C-alpha cells in the first residue's frame, strides 16, 4: 500500500510578503500562518481600530476648528504669556499619526481578506500605543483650555452631514466583504451572530441617519436670502496688524461693509483700540516701558500709548503666515504703525460711508475714568463726525443716555426679553444660536450678526440661514464666496439619499450571497486534487516548487532496493515500479 503527501506547490506571493512583512515583520513564508488569530492579537486589532476612529475624530475637529485658530492661539498666549502659532505642531503630529495608523489598519484588513493570521510587530504596537496616548492627552488639553470649541462639531454637521453620511455608507458597504466572509464560515459561533447583528444595526442606522439632519443649505434656491454683509473684525488681522489703520483699510479694500473694533479708555480719557488687557502682544512696550509691560493697558496715558510701535510684532511673529506675501512698501507701512485711536477708526469708516461696531471694555473700578468712560466714548464718536445711526456698540448699558446710537448685546436672549429691553440687534457667537433660533429671531425682525466667521463653509451655512451680517477676521477670504458652496433642494437630496441607501443594501445582500456561494463551492473540492492539478497545468517557469514529498510505506515488508521511484512533475504524474505496479 502506498501513502502519499500531496505535492505542495507555492507561487511567489510578493503582495502577501509585503503585507505580512510590513505589518508583522514576517517576510518569509514559513513565518506566516492561516490559523485563527490569537485573542491577544485581536485585542491589538481593536486598539488599532480605536486609535483610527479617535484620530479621525481629532483630525475632523481641527479641520473644522480652523475657523477659530486665532482664538486658540490667543488663549494659549493668555496662559503662557508667549505668542506663537500652536496649531502647526498639533496639525503636523495629527497628520503623521493618522497616516501611520491608517496604513497599519489597511494592512490589517488585507490580512483578514487574505486569510492571514494577525500578528502586529512589537514596534508598531509601541507606535500605535504612543499615538493613542498622545491623542487622548491632546483631547484632554483642548477640553481644559478650549472646551467651548467642541460646539463647532455640531455647527459643522449642518454643512458636512450629507457628505459624511455618503462616506460612512460607502465604508460600511465595503466592509461587508470581510463581514460576510467571516459570518458564512462552516464553523458557527455566537461571535459570528453578534458580528452580524452589530453590522446590520450599523447599516440600518446609517440608512436612516438623514432623518436627524438639519442642513440649512437643503432648501429651494429661490428662497435664498441676499448675501450677508461682512464686518471687518479688528480690520483684516490676517493681512495687517489688528486694530490698526492699515488693517481697517485692508478690510474696506476687500469688501467689508462695516468695521469692528475693541475700545479701551486710557487713563486720561482717550478711547483707543486694543484687544488685550496688556500691551505686550501687539506693541513694543517691553522695550519702551519694560517695567510696565504687565500693567493694564488702560492705565497708560495717550502720549505713552502713541509712542509705541503697533506693527513690528506682526512682521516678526507672522501669526497668519502672510508676512512673506507683503511687498516692501507694505512691510514698511506696517512696520511704522502706531496704536489707533477710536476717532481715527471712525473717521475712516465715515469717509468710506461704512458703519462701525464697537466692543467697549469698561475700565476697572480703580481706574480714574471708571465713571466717565461712557461720555469719553460718546465724545469721541461725535468728534469723528460719523452719523450716530451708523454706530453700534456693546455692552447694552446706559440705554437712557444713548440717543441716536444703536446698541447690541452678545447675550443670547429670548424674543420677549429683546422686546422688553428695546434691542433691535444681537451679536452672537456662531455656537450660541441654532438654525431654528436664528429663524425665530429673523421672523421677529431682530437683526443678528454672527461671529467669528472665517471659513467659507460656515459663511455658506449662515447665508442659507438668512443671517444678514457676519463678523470676520478674513474678509479677503469671504469675498471669494459669491454663492453658497453647495445648495440642494429637499427633493433632490431625498432622491440621492434613497438611491444611495438602496444601492448600498443591494450590494451588501449580493456580497453575502456571493460569499455563501463561494464558501460552499470551496467545500466541495478536494484540496489534494487542486494542488496536483495545479502542477499539471502550470509550467516550471511559473511555479516554484519548494517542497515535494512522497511517503511510501508497506504494511508487511519494507521496499526493496530494486524498487524504482520516478517523479515527473513536468508531466503531472508519478511512476512507481514494483512487480508491475505503476501510477
TrEMBL record:
Mode of membrane association: Multi-pass membrane protein
Compartments (UniProt record): Membrane
PROSITE patterns given in the database record: GP_PDE (PS51704), PROKAR_LIPOPROTEIN (PS51257)
Main location: membrane
InterPro entries according to UniProt: GP_PDE_dom, PLC-like_Pdiesterase_TIM-brl
A GO-annotated cellular component: plasma membrane
Domain GP-PDE per the UniProt entry, residue ranges: 228-482
Record-level GO BP terms: lipid metabolic process; positive regulation of neuron differentiation
Transmembrane segments: 42-63, 90-110, 122-142, 162-184, 191-213, 495-514
GO MF terms, alphabetically ordered: glycerophosphodiester phosphodiesterase activity
Keyword terms of this UniProt record: Glycoprotein, Hydrolase, Membrane, Transmembrane, Transmembrane helix
Origin: domain of life: Eukaryota
Protein family: Belongs to the glycerophosphoryl diester phosphodiesterase family.
Protein name according to UniProt: Glycerophosphodiester phosphodiesterase domain containing 5
Organism: Maylandia zebra
Lineage summary: Eukaryota, Metazoa, Chordata, Craniata, Vertebrata
